[in-house]
Every structure is written in C-alpha cells, then in structure tokens.
Amino acid sequence: MSGSKNGTFMRRTGADGVEHRIPVGTIVGDRPGGRVTIFAGQHGTEYDGLEAAQKLYRTLTPADVSGTIVIALSTNDQSFLNWEQFAPTHPPILEMMEELATGSDLLINCHGGEFSEGMEPYVICRLLGDPELDAKARAMADAFGVPYVSFSQYRGEPPETGVRPAWWLWPKKSMSDRLRIPEITPEVGERGSRDDKGIMYDGIVNVLKTFGFLEGQPSGKPAPREIGDRYWLTADEDGIFFPETTIGKDVAEGEHLGVVRDYFGRLIQEVKAPAAAKVMNMNWGMPVKQGGFLLWLGVIK
Ligand SMILES: [Zn+2]
C-alpha cells in the first residue's frame, strides 16, 4: 500500500462565536499498523513539544511509518500565537482533540514548563484501571526515556491527608478515561526552551519505535523512577518570589529554598523544604499572589 502525508487546519467555532483551529499533520505509512495521536502545545508557551512535534511531521515520510501518526502541531493555537501562559482548553479545542484521538491506540500529550516555569523532565502516566491498557501506558512511560514518572491512577475526590493533598493521584477524568486510550503526558522543557537537547523529540521517537510505528530500536534508557509524596508550596501573601535553589536539586528537610519579599525588601516568607525531596517544578515568574504556586518537591521512590 502507498501512504500519504497531509497537513491541514481543523476548525471549530464555539458557542461564543470564536473560531479555533488546529494545524494537523497526518502521516499514513506505507505499511499497515496502529494509530497514534500526538498533541503539542495544549499550553502555547511550552515549546519543547511544539518543536518536537513539528520536527517530527516535517521530517517523516510515509516510507518511514507503519500505521498512522496524527500530530496536532499547535493544539491551542490562540495560546501559541499570543504567548498566553496557562491557557484554558476551550470547549471547541477539546472537541477537536477528542476527534483527533478517537480511533487511536495511544495518545502522547506533550507538556512542560511555560515561560515562567522551571521544570525537571518527567512523564505523567495515566492508569485507567484496565490491565491491558495500563501495560501499554507503562510501556510508553518506560520507553520515553526521562528519569521520573508520575502515575495518575485514581479518579474522584482525594482522601483527606492533611498537609499533603494527594490530588496528583486523584485527577479529574480526562479524554484518556473517556475514550479508554492509554496516554502519557511528557513534562519536558522550561522557561521558553525549545527542546535544545532533543529530550522531547527523542522520547516521542522512542515510543513510536517501541510500538512499531517507526523502525529501529528505542534508545533504551533506564526505566523512570516513580515520584511518590509531593509537597506543593505556596505564598503566604502577595509578594515577589526570590528562589534560592535550582530545579532538579535534592534538598534536605528544612533546607532554605528562597524568600518572598515586598518591593521594598521586607521579608514576607522564608520558604523551606518540608521534607527531603527533589525540586521538580518552580515558578520563575517574579510576582506571586497569596496562595499562589512557588514550587513543588517530589520524593523519588
Ligand atoms: Zn502544560
């Protein structure tokens, strides 16, 4: 059989009359196989996924592919074009995402740190409670090739655990749950980086090779270590955050991580590590609001 490569805009208008569009690249391989959908740029300033997905579409030909690879090259295009951080996924975008995902065997939804976020690379693996689907999700997470994995496995309200809410294990139901398709969410890149080291691109290619969409062996990185307990630190008051630690650092309990001050230098808050853990994700934006995110630490199992 002879494959094809086709790039086109998908468009959908919401109830508010605003049209949204997604540039979609579809490569139908010369050989039969499954179907995978890759989303980049659901958050428009997370550039690693956008770089990797666009490079993938640009460089692959049908001769390289078995099955079908569908790539949303800029999922939230308004967020991308306007450099809008933490953009909501408007209903028409969600509808289009579901349409692109429907019929696929696997989903890869590329995320990372936005312009004002520091991020240690990790992969979120959604477990759906079905052994066959979960084995595929775990195999994707293992193949991707980043050092850490966060399992997202329960749905509904988290149990009351006091100071350490376990919301990361109790996420809302997602498209992956609704469609019963295994999904990973790589979290790669930070502060405007553009996949300089190729971590996102190589990770996607590793998954595509593992599941036979591309020929060749995945790079065979060690399986990721699981992120266990997580500490989410927030600002006591409005102020300006001065981090004094680095992404990826293993910090001791009580270690100084930074301060929150006002414009005039008055100390509002000293930020300390509540436990020995790794700095996984940090707000690099200077202003912080009361209750707003400063950083989170993960205990690596
Ligand atoms: Zn994101």
TrEMBL record:
- Residues of the Succinylglutamate desuccinylase/Aspartoacylase catalytic domain: 33-81
Q: Which UniProt keywords apply?
A: Hydrolase, Metal-binding, Zinc
Q: Which domain of life is it from?
A: Bacteria
The record, for InterPro entries, names: AstE_AspA_cat, N-alpha-Ac-DABA_deacetylase
GO molecular function per UniProt: hydrolase activity, acting on ester bonds; metal ion binding
Q: Which cofactors?
A: Zn(2+)
Name of the protein in its database record: Succinylglutamate desuccinylase / Aspartoacylase family protein
Q: State the organism of origin.
A: Devosia enhydra
